[in-house]
Amino acid sequence: MNFFEEVGTAALGSRLRRLNDMMTSQAAEVYSLYHVPFEPRWFPVFYTVASAAGRHIGDIAESIGQTHAAVSQVVKDLAKHELVTVQRAQVDQRRSEVSLTERGAELWTGLQQQTTDVRQATEELLAETRHNLWLALGEMEYALSRQSLASRVKAIRDARVAGEVHILEYQPHYHPDFKRLNVEWIERYFRVEEADLKALNHPDEYILQRGGHILLAEYHGQVVGTCALLRMDDDTFELAKMAVSPTAQGLGIGFRLGEAAIAKAQMLGARRLYLESNTKLAPALQLYHKLGFRKTVAGQPSPYERCNIQMEKILTA
User: Fold this and answer.
1) What is the pLDDT of residues 247-283, one digit of tens each?
2) Model confidence over 106-121: pLDDT tens digits?
3) For the sheet containing 84-88, what is the strand order?
4) What is the mean pLDDT of residues 185-205?
5) Is residue 242 part of a domain?
6) Which residues form the N-acetyltransferase domain (predicted)?
7) Domain boundary at 146, 164, 195, which?
8) First to last CA, the chain
9) Residue ranges making up the domain that contains 67
10) Dist CA 313 CA 172 (whole Å)
11) Predicted confidence (pLDDT) per residue in 297-313, tens digit
12) Cβ contacts of 303 within 8 Å, gap of 6 or more
């Protein structure tokens, strides 16, 4: 079976690259028809310079939708073949202006007629197809500018993972997982402190018996995440001991745990959630902001050396 038929739309990028290779190869044949010593990849830059002399490389890159580095390389190739000249701009010496040389201007005269012929041939080609590829490409580029393919894939993956992640209430046999996950992340960035060991070694005494709760995340039969709610007073819980295994990070599991902890706190009548963290843990802080936490200076002195930021979330009924 043909690869593209088997894989389908998941291979859209590969299919477009194959089409691009085909078009580029046939474009080279077109240039040979007109006896023009020219590479197809030069055309967007050369055409832009020919249409308006003295363009800056940055302007050209923006106009044709390519990177500054890619345009700079093409300009170097064109200059090497004596088709363009590059000079410092009179107004701003930091910028380079690109213009056609005399040889480039001669080439441009013949290239304009070739472009007209190619445009007519391409329009006839598009007329042979049921769907106008040119218009479809415009729609595709617009859609991708609104939301990248990667973000679309991530949304689908996260939705799938969400259905495969199970949030569990703590049971004594989960104690090794609770401790392992927390020690793992603490030792990666800091050191395990005495205050950590009290809660990690004796979660019943220091968390559960004081009105707190521990949640765990199970994914594909493995406990890969955990967090705890420590009761501070009748209205406030501390969100603490949140950890996700490195093997499961990036799957939105931390967010699922955070959402579950917030829902649990609301069910218990809490009006405020509080947490402590460190500013070097950028991904964690991004997660907390996404969950609705904001920095506060009203927190009590922390028992942890590593704490240099305190955050809170006011809960609504």
Assistant:
1) 998 888 999 999 999 999 999 999 999 999 999 999 9
2) 999 888 889 999 999 9
3) 55-56, 96-100, 84-88
4) 93
5) yes
6) 176-316
7) 146
8) 58
9) 34-146
10) 29
11) 877 888 899 999 999 99
12) 193, 195
| Cβ contacts of 198 within 8 Å, gap of 6 or more | 206
Q: pLDDT digit string (tens) for 13-63?
A: 998 999 999 998 998 899 888 888 888 899 999 999 998 877 888 889 999
| Sign, Cα dihedral of 198, 201, 202, 204 | positive
Which single residue is written with the structure tokens 């700079």? 72
Residue 184, token pair as written in the block? 């793992």
Q: Last residue of some domain: 124, 146, 168?
A: 146
Rg (C-alpha) for the chain, rounded Å, is 30
Q: What are the angstrom distances between the C-alpha of 15 and each of 7, 20, 37, 133, 285?
A: 11, 9, 29, 13, 40
Strands 236-244 vs 272-277: parallel, antiparallel or unpaired: parallel
Residue 239 bridge partners (DSSP)? 229
Task: Give per-residue burial for 196-210: e unless 16+ CB within 10 Å, then b.
Answer: beebbeebeebbbee
Is residue 288 in a domain?
yes
